[in-house]
Amino acid sequence: MLQAATSRSVDVFEKLEQVGEGTYGQVYMARNRLDGEIVALKKVRMDNEKEGFPITAIREIKILKTLDHKNVIKLKEIVTSKVRSPNKTSIYMVFEYMDHDLTGLADRPGIKFTVPQIKCYMKQLLTGLTYCHLNNILHRDIKGSNLLIDNQGVLKLADFGLARPCALENSKTLTNRVITLWYRPPELLLGTQTYGPAVDMWSAGCIFAELLYGKPILPVRDEVEQLDLIFKLCGSPVADEWPEYRELPWSKKYTKQKPFQRRTHEVFRRFPLSARNLIDGLLALNPRKRMTAKDALDSDYFWEEPMPCSPQDLPKYEPSHEFQTRKRRQVRFWCPWCLW
Ligand code: AMP
C-alpha cells in the first residue's frame, strides 16, 4: 500500500522551514528541487520502530488515498529518507502546501474576520464534512489548526490521523478518546462508544461560535470541567430532549443538583437570529438531533445578506500557522462568556 520500495527519496525536496508539529510528527515547508513546486512534508514519527510503521499513519494514508475533494487536503505522494539501515528509514507524506491554518490566521494581531469571510470559511468546512460523511469517514479532530487555508482562500480539512470509517453496524465500538477537548461533544465525554458524523458536527459548531465570538467558547482544563461548561451553555440534559443520555456509561458521575437552562441565545445575543439558530442546531446535546453538515449548509445563515464571499475575494495574508503564532498566544483557561 505504501509502495516504500518504489517511492522517491525525500532528497527530491529541499526543506525550507518547520511550519507545524502534529501529534504524529513535524511538518515542513519544502521545495521540489526538480520543478520548484512548494509542498508540505509531514514526517511520520516512528516512536516505536520495533512495532513497525505506525497504525495511525497507515490509517491516515489509506483514508486520504480514498478522498478527492477540493475541501480535503490532497496527499500527493509518500517519500522516504535514504536507507542506511532498513529499520532507520524515515517516511514523509507529501501534501499540497497551504499558507495558513485557521487558528494561526485568527491569532494574527489585528485580524478581524468579516461576516462574508466567516460564511465563506464555514461553507467550505461544511462542504468538506458533507463529502467525508457521505463517504463514511469521520474526521474526529476538527479544530482550527486542522483547517488549512491557501492564499486563494480555499479551506481544506487536514490531519486525518484520528479519522476512521464510520462503524456501519451498531455492534462495532469506537474509542471515545478522540477530538481535542475544547471541541469534543458531550456524548464522547459521557463515554459513548457508538457514534457517527454528529461528533464532527459538534466540533464544527464550536468553530463557528469561535469565529463569531473571536475566542474559543469552551476553554477548560479537563473532561469534568468541559462537561460542566457545556451544560452551562447548552443546558443540562433532560429526558425529553435526550432520552439516551441516562444510558451513557458516565452519565451518573456528572449529575448536578441544580439543572442549568440553555443559554445559547443569551450568550450569542449580539449575533443575528440565523447565526444563533445555526449554533443551536450544531450544539444540540442529543447527537441524533444535531444538524448534519448538509442541513447546516441549507440553513438561512448562508442564504441571507450579507452573503458569503467567494474564496478568491478573501484578503491575502502573510503565511500563518498555529505552530508559529502559538508562541505569541497565551492559552487562557477561563470562560469568556460566564461571570463566575
Ligand atoms: P498535522 O499534523 O497534520 O495536524 O499538522 C500540524 C500543523 O502543520 C498544522 O496545524 C498546520 O499548521 C501545518 N500543516 C499541516 N499540513 C500542512 C500543509 N499541507 N501545508 C502547510 N502547513 C501544514
From TrEMBL:
Enumerate the GO terms in the molecular function aspect.
Answer: ATP binding; cyclin-dependent protein serine/threonine kinase activity; RNA polymerase II CTD heptapeptide repeat kinase activity
Q: What keywords were assigned to this record?
A: ATP-binding, Kinase, Nucleotide-binding, Serine/threonine-protein kinase, Transferase
Q: What is this protein called?
A: cyclin-dependent kinase
Please name the SMART domains in this protein's record: S_TKc
Give a yes or no for keyword RNA-binding in this entry.
no
- Please name the top-level EC class of this enzyme: transferase
Species this chain originates from: Micromonas commoda (strain RCC299 / NOUM17 / CCMP2709)
Domain Protein kinase: where? 13-302
> E.C. number, please?
2.7.11.22
* Known catalytic reactions: L-threonyl-[protein] + ATP = O-phospho-L-threonyl-[protein] + ADP + H(+); L-seryl-[protein] + ATP = O-phospho-L-seryl-[protein] + ADP + H(+)
By its UniProt entry, which Pfam families does this protein fall under?
Answer: Pkinase (PF00069)
**UniProt record similarity statement:** Belongs to the protein kinase superfamily. CMGC Ser/Thr protein kinase family. CDC2/CDKX subfamily.
Q: Which GO terms describe its biological process?
A: positive regulation of transcription elongation by RNA polymerase II
Q: Which residues cross the membrane?
A: none
Q: Name a GO CC annotation attached to this entry.
A: nucleus
Which InterPro entries does its entry note? CDK, Kinase-like_dom_sf, Prot_kinase_dom, Protein_kinase_ATP_BS, Ser/Thr_kinase_AS
Flavoprotein as a keyword?
no
Residues binding ATP, per UniProt: K42
